[in-house]
From TrEMBL:
Region (Phosphopantothenoylcysteine decarboxylase): 1-192
Protein name (database record): Coenzyme A biosynthesis bifunctional protein CoaBC
Domain DNA/pantothenate metabolism flavoprotein C-terminal intervals: 189-396
Similarity-based family: In the C-terminal section; belongs to the PPC synthetase family. In the N-terminal section; belongs to the HFCD (homo-oligomeric flavin containing Cys decarboxylase) superfamily.
Residues reported to bind CTP: G275, C276, A277, D281, K291, P307, D308, I309, I310, F326, K340, K344
A matching Pfam family: Flavoprotein
Catalysis performed (reactions): (R)-4'-phosphopantothenate + L-cysteine + CTP = N-[(R)-4-phosphopantothenoyl]-L-cysteine + CMP + diphosphate + H(+); N-[(R)-4-phosphopantothenoyl]-L-cysteine + H(+) = (R)-4'-phosphopantetheine + CO2
Any GO molecular function: phosphopantothenate--cysteine ligase activity
Active site per database record: C160
Organism: [Haemophilus] felis
Pathway recorded for this protein: Cofactor biosynthesis; coenzyme A biosynthesis; CoA from (R)-pantothenate: step 3/5; Cofactor biosynthesis; coenzyme A biosynthesis; CoA from (R)-pantothenate: step 2/5
GO BP of this protein: coenzyme A biosynthetic process; pantothenate catabolic process
Length: 405
């Protein structure tokens, strides 16, 4: 018996493809391991497998249509979307992958996927030429960026006689992947996290700007550490030279005002918000439309205050996430960090000592963490290891926060 699956609610979507017959065995395996299964069939899938078979094997009525009043009365599409701990689409056709990529909601399965916050696992199955097409590969990469998980396809002889990558994974392999995703290592499945990282750039004229030395390494490492544990991560990044961590949705911005707009939009949809960006406190009051010409020995720039993004998140009265800030200080580390914790209404603050320029763009960092009822120190180590330790502490405080609420 696979204990990861006991009591788990798995919604199995079947799209049109000859491999649909293998999904019957997958459902049998899931049920054998005490998972609850509900099946959604696309119209094309009914050409390959019958609702009656799937009802018998899953032990539940099979849903097929978005516009079926009877089915909607029993368990409507939104209820189905909320019911699922995980959505598994096997086989996932090239057409379904493309439609999921662009957010279509014109049939029951695509609508349920769009309406659900459950993790989604796709088991692609298609002709090898269709699989290797640039557009299919681009769609798969786009979905991976949005945290959609994949299993397979396998390489081998196909029903059409071609040989290549495109065969749906075997039921046992899909079952194993489901189990892994539900396992301890993926303990943050369903947790939504928004993170800001990197610097902002505040334009002076079309060719010059004010910024700072943040490289984004710390914020990207935090995004990676959350994503590795299965959280749904959105990373709002200032201009940096770093590749996106796997399974992280990245939004690139330049200025503090752009970061504010994206961060607030993401914060209200997230459980946890981490403000690791080094946001410029001020911006130029009037950005010159043309390059400023050199004239005289001095030049005056008037700066105006930028929005304090994390303070706005901390002070949200509706849909406020658990809010974690950073403080980069050159002196009075503890006092200034605790002051920011209180003033910006944060749940936790991570203080860096940046005197003598260390931390910004460095490979290593240490952090002193403070929250209203305590604190701890994370000693000097590489930023990725530090990020993992920080995520452990954030999750422990986050869980406590909900116990107390
Ligand atoms: O990117 P790296 O090179 O890896 O370096 C990491 C780091 C030093 C940038 C990072 O660890 C860090 O300390 N980030 C916060 C830097 C900072 O701007 O600190 P602050 O004390 O000025 O700001 C306090 C908090 O308010 C931060 O959470 C910051 O994101 C937020 N803030 C600040 C100003 C502003 N206008 N809006 C904000 O949201």
């Amino acid at each position: 018996m696979d204990s990861q699956l006991v009591g788990k609610r798995i919604l199995v979507g079947i799209t049109g493809g000859i491999a649909a017959y293998k999904t019957i065995e997958l459902i049998r395996l899931l049920r054998k391991n005490k998972a609850e299964v509900r099946v959604v069939l696309t119209p094309a899938a009914t050409e390959f497998v019958t609702p009656l078979t799937l009802q018998a094997i899953s032990g539940n009525p099979v849903a097929q249509s978005l516009l079926d009043p009877q089915a909607e009365l029993a368990m409507g599409h939104i209820e189905l979307a909320k019911w699922a701990d995980m959505i598994v689409v096997a086989p996932a056709s090239a057409d379904f992958i493309a439609r999921l990529t662009v957010g279509m909601a014109d049939d029951l399965l695509s609508t349920v996927c769009l309406a659900s916050s459950a993790p989604i696992l796709l088991a692609p199955a298609m002709n090898q030429q269709m699989f290797s097409q640039t557009i299919t590969q681009q769609n798969i990469r786009a979905l991976q960026q949005r945290q959609v998980q994949f299993v397979g396809p396998n390489v081998g002889e196909q029903a059409c006689g071609d040989v290549g990558a495109g065969r749906m994974s075997e039921p046992a392999e899909i079952h194993q992947k489901i189990s892994e995703l539900l396992s301890e290592a993926q303990d943050l499945l369903g947790v939504k996290v928004a993170i800001t990282a990197g610097p902002t750039r505040e334009a002076i004229d079309p060719v010059r700007y004010i910024s700072n030395h943040s490289s984004g390494k710390m914020g990207f490492a935090i995004a990676e550490a959350f994503a590795e544990r299965g959280a749904t991560v959105t990373l709002i990044s200032g201009p940096v030279n770093l590749p996106s961590p796997l399974n992280v949705h990245r939004i690139d911005v330049i200025s503090a005002e752009q970061m504010q707009e994206q961060a607030l939009m993401q914060a209200v949809q997230s459980h946890i918000f981490v403000g690791c960006a080094a946001v410029a406190d001020y911006r130029v009051a009037n950005i010159a439309e043309q390059k400023i010409k050199k004239a005289g020995d001095e030049i005056q720039l008037t700066l105006v205050k930028n929005p304090d993004i994390i303070a706005e998140v901390g002070h949200l009265s509706v849909n406020r996430p658990f809010t974690v800030g950073f403080a980069a200080e050159t002196e009075n580390l503890e006092q200034y960090a605790k002051d920011k914790l209180q003033r910006k209404k944060l749940d936790m603050i991570c203080a860096n000592d940046v005197s003598s320029g260390q931390v910004f763009n460095a490979e290593e960092n240490s952090l002193r963490l403070f929250w209203s009822a305590g604190g701890t120190t994370l000693p000097l180590t590489d930023k990725r290891t530090l990020a993992k330790q920080l995520v452990n502490q954030i999750m422990s405080n986050y869980q406590q926060y909900y116990v107390e609420k």
